[in-house]
Amino acid sequence: MNAGTVQANDRSSWTRVCSVDAVPQAGGVAALLPGGVQAAVFRVPSGAVYALSNIDPFSGAAVLARGIVGDTNGVPFVASPLHKERFDLRTGECLDDASVRVSSFDVLLDDGVVFVREPWP
Amino acid sequence: MSRTLVVVGNGMVGHRLVEAVRAADVAGDWHVVVLAEEARPAYDRVGLSSYVDSWDAGALVLPGADHATDERVELRLGDPASAVDTERKVVTTASGAEQPYDALVLATGSRPFVPPVPGHDLPGCFVYRTIDDLDAIHAAARRARDGHGRASGIVVGGGLLGLEAAKALRDMDLSPHVVEMAPRLMPLQIDDGGGALLARLVTELDVTVHTATSTAEIVRDGNRLVARLGNGTDLDADLVVFSAGIRPRDDLARSCGLEIAERGGVLVDEQCRTGTADVYAIGECAAVQGTTYGLVAPGYAMAEAVAAQLTSGHPATFPGADTSTKLKLLGVDVASFGDAHAETEGALEVVVNDAVAGTYKKLVVSDDGTTLLGGVLVGDTGEFNTLRTLVGRALPDDPAAILSPDGAAGGGVGVDALPDEAQVCSCNAVTKGAITSAVHEGGCESVSGLKACTGAGTGCGSCVPLLSKLLDSCGVEQSTAVCEHFPQSRSELFEIVAGTGIATFSELIARYGSGNGCAICKPAVASILASLGTEHILDGEHATLQDTNDRHLANMQRNGTYSVVPRVPGGEITPEKLIAIGEIAREFDLYTKITGGQRIDMFGATVDELPRIWRRLVDAGFESGHAYGKALRTVKSCVGWTWCRYGVQDSVGMAVELELRYRGLRSPHKLKAAVSGCARECAEAQSKDFGVIATERGWNLYVGGNGGALPRHADLLASDVDSETLVRLIDRFVMFYIRTADRLQRTARWLEEMDGGLEHLRSVIVDDSLGICAELEAAMHEHVANYVDEWNAVLSDPDKLARFTSFVNAPEAPDPTISFRTERAQKVPVLLGTPEVSRS
C-alpha cells in the first residue's frame, strides 16, 4: 500500500516543541506530536539538537527523554533510563545491540525555537 | 534401591561429608542418618573464639546444617551412638534406638586432653571445645567479674588452641595467664625464635606467658583457685581452662572391635576405610595409615574422599594434608609451613629476626640452599601464600634476599617464580596453571572473573592479592578507570574533587577527563559532588548527571511511572501518618506495598503527579526517604526493650537516631542498616551495611553485611561500645567507605577486596592508624549540619518543579502509553508492547 505523498506530508508536518533553552544542556525533554506520537529532544554540549522517538524499544515505555546523554568515542548517545542501552542520537541505532534502532526525528532550529517532525516512512 | 548411610558425629567434618554426599548423590540413592551428640546443628568450631564477640550461637551454625529442607537427611540431635554391631550392621544410640546401616562413617572428632594434674576436676576448671564449654566459662567469668577487682583466668597449654582460649578469656574481661610446658608458645608450629617474638607480642596484649613450666597442682582457695606451677610460682585465678591438646575419640571404635592406631585414632587406609567392611572413619578421630590430623582441612579432604567412594563406587584416596598454618592469634599473625623445624637431614635455616619491626621470618632450605623445605613467619605473614606453594621447589632467589625487605623487588618471591602446579588457592585446590590458563584461554580479565571461572579466592579469600598479581604478570591491565572519559578510579576522583574544590561535572571532565561523559561517570561524579558539597542534586547542571531515579527523586518502574517512598525512621510511624499515607495513596490511586525496609511504597505515579503527591506528604510531616538514591535507605529496627520482654536496649530509639543522622548522605551505593534490641537479632542487622545489636553492656557494631544476590554475614567491628562511641565509629566507617569504595560497590564487596580486610578497617577506623578519623568525623558533622529535605526544596523552587512535566509542549497532557489494570483490588501497569522495535 502506498500512503501517498500528500498524506505523508501531513503526518510529517513540523511541530513546535519549545525554545532551545528549555532543553537542558546534555539532557532531554519529551514532546507530544500529533497522533499521540512522542519525541525525545536532546541537546548536546556542542549545541546540536537531536530528536528520537521517546519510546524505549526494549520496554515499550516512553522514557528515553529521561535518559543520560553522553558520548562514546565521539558518538553522541542517550542511555535508556530503564536498562541503560545506548542509542546514537544522530541515527537512533542502538549501540549495544546492532539489530535494534529507534526512529530518528527531523529537527529544525528556527530563531531559538525547536521544531520536530516524524521522519519519512 | 535406597541405602542408608549412618554418620556418627555432627562436627564440621561430619557435616562436610553429608553435604558432599548429598551434592553428588543426584539420584538420591542414599538415605543419610546423622547421630549427633550435641543438641545443636553442626557449627564452626574453628571459629569458636568468635562466639565470645556476640554470644550468638546461631552465628556459628554452618550453612544448611539443619537439613530442614532435605528429606534425604535425618538429623538426630542429642542422641549419640553408644554401640555398633558390625556383624548385624546396626548402630545403637544413647536413647536405645537401633539404626541399621549400609555404610557407617565415624566422625566422632576428638576430646580435649586434660593432664592428670591433681585438682583438674575442681569446680572452676574447664575445657575449650564446644559452645557449651564456652557458655560455662562465660558464666564463671561473669561471676568472677562481679566478685572483686580484675578477674583472671589460667590457660593450661600454649599451643594454637590455648592462645585462642586466652583471647576468649581476655574478651571476657579476664586477665589471662598461659602456662606452657615447652620452652615456647605454639611449640608444634613454630621455633624458639618465633616463639620468643610471639610471647613478647602477646604479652603486650595483656597476656602473661609462663613457658617451660608445668602445672603441678590446682587447689581451692576460698572462692578462687590457685595453680601451683612446676617452677614454684603460685597463680591465683578465678578459673582454669585446659587446652593442652586433643586426643582422638576412638572409644566407640574400640568397643566395637575396630583396629586402633598405635598413638590412638581409628586406623584407616588411604581411602579412610577401617578393617571392617563398609565402616569408614574421617576427621580428627581417624588415623590415616597411623597419622592423625588436628586441623579441619585434612578432615574435609577425608570427607570428600569417602563421599566420592560412596556416591561413585570407585576408590578415592585422601590426598594427604598440607599442614601449613596461617592464623591470627590475639592479633598477631603467625604462620608455619612445610618442615618448619628443619627436621630434614642437612636442612639449613635462614632467619631474619627484626625485633624493632616485630617480625620474625625463617626459611628452612635444603643443604645446598636451593630448595625450600619450610618456614616460620611471625608478625608478618604476607609472604605465606607464595612461600607455601614453593615448598619442595627451587628457590627463585637467595633465601636471605627473599626474607630481606631490601631484597629483590622489595623482598619476597614474585609470582613469576611459582611453578604451574603451585596451588594458589588451597581452599579450592586451584593451581597457578589453572589460573593463568583461565586468563590466557578463558579470557578472564579481573579478579572477579577469575573467582567465577576457577573458584579461586572464593573460600577464605587470602589468595586474592595473589590473583591480582597473577593477572598483572599475565599482562592483563586491571583498569580501575571509571570509564572511557576518566582514567581515574572513583576514589581518585573523590580525592581530586575534595582536594581541588571543583564543584561541577563540566569543570572536572575538562580538567581531568575527556569527552562529554556517559551514564557511568555522570552519576558517579554526581554522587561524589553530592557527598562533598551542599548543593541540591537537581541544582543547575547537576540535574542531568543524575541517574534515572535521582533525576526525578523517585523510583522509575517498568512502564515509566514512579514509586514514592516517604521516610519512616526506624519503621516507627504514628496512626495519623499511616492514615495520611493511605489518604494520599487513595487520592492519587497508587498501588501500595510494605517494603522490606519497614516503610510504605506507593506505585504508579506519573512524573507530573510527583510534586503534587509530595506537597501532600510534606504537609503531613513526611520527608524524602531516598529510596531513589545511592544513599542511606533505612535503619530497620525491632521493637526493643520498650515493649519486647527480651530486649536489652532501645533499638527503635537508636535506629531513629542513626537514620536521621545519615539520611540524605550520598554514597557509592545504597546503604542499609538495622538495629536489633537483643542477640535474637530480629532486625537482621548482620545482613546490613552496618548493623547494631544490643548487648547488656552496650552495642555490638557489625559492618559489611549484604543480602541480595551475594549474601554476606557482617563482620563484628566493635563490641559492647556505648552509644556515643557507636555513632562515632559508624560516622568514620561510612565516610571511609564513601571516600574509598568503587562506584556501585556495596560495603560487603568493598570490605572483601580491602587490602588487609577487617583488621585493616579496624585499624583505620577504631585505632585511627591513618590519622584520618578527625577528618572523617568532621565530614560527617558537615553532612548532618547541612541536611535539608530534597523534596521540600523542590517544592519551593519553580525551576526544579518545571522538570516534573510529561511533555515540554503539553504539560497537562498525560502520557498516552501509560495504562493500568486491576489485580487483587489494586491497580498494576498494563505491560507495554514494543511497537518501535525494528530489527533488521
From TrEMBL, chain A:
Domain of life: Bacteria
Keyword set includes Oxidoreductase: yes
GO molecular function, one term: 2 iron, 2 sulfur cluster binding
Residue ranges of domain Rieske in the record: 14-116
Keywords from the named record: 2Fe-2S, Iron, Iron-sulfur, Metal-binding, Nitrate assimilation, Oxidoreductase
Keyword Metal-binding found: yes
Example GO biological process: nitrate assimilation
NCBIfam families: nirD_assim_sml
Protein name: Nitrite reductase small subunit NirD
Native species: Haloechinothrix aidingensis
UniProt gene name: nirD
From TrEMBL, chain B:
Catalytic activity of the protein: hydrogen sulfide + 6 oxidized [2Fe-2S]-[ferredoxin] + 3 H2O = sulfite + 6 reduced [2Fe-2S]-[ferredoxin] + 7 H(+)
InterPro entries: BFD-like_2Fe2S-bd_dom, BFD-like_2Fe2S-bd_dom_sf, FAD/NAD-bd_sf, FAD/NAD-binding_dom, FAD/NAD-linked_Rdtase_dimer_sf, NasD-like, NiRdtase/SiRdtase_haem-b_fer, Nit/Sulf_reduc_fer-like_dom_sf
Cofactor(s), names only, from the UniProt record: [2Fe-2S] cluster; [4Fe-4S] cluster; siroheme; FAD
Pathway assigned in UniProt: Nitrogen metabolism; nitrate reduction (assimilation)
Cofactor binding note: Binds 1 [4Fe-4S] cluster per subunit. Binds 1 siroheme per subunit.
Domain of life: Bacteria
One Gene Ontology molecular-function label: nitrite reductase activity
Keyword Transport listed: no
Subunit structure: Homodimer which associates with NirD.
Protein name as it appears in the record: assimilatory sulfite reductase (ferredoxin)
Species: Haloechinothrix aidingensis
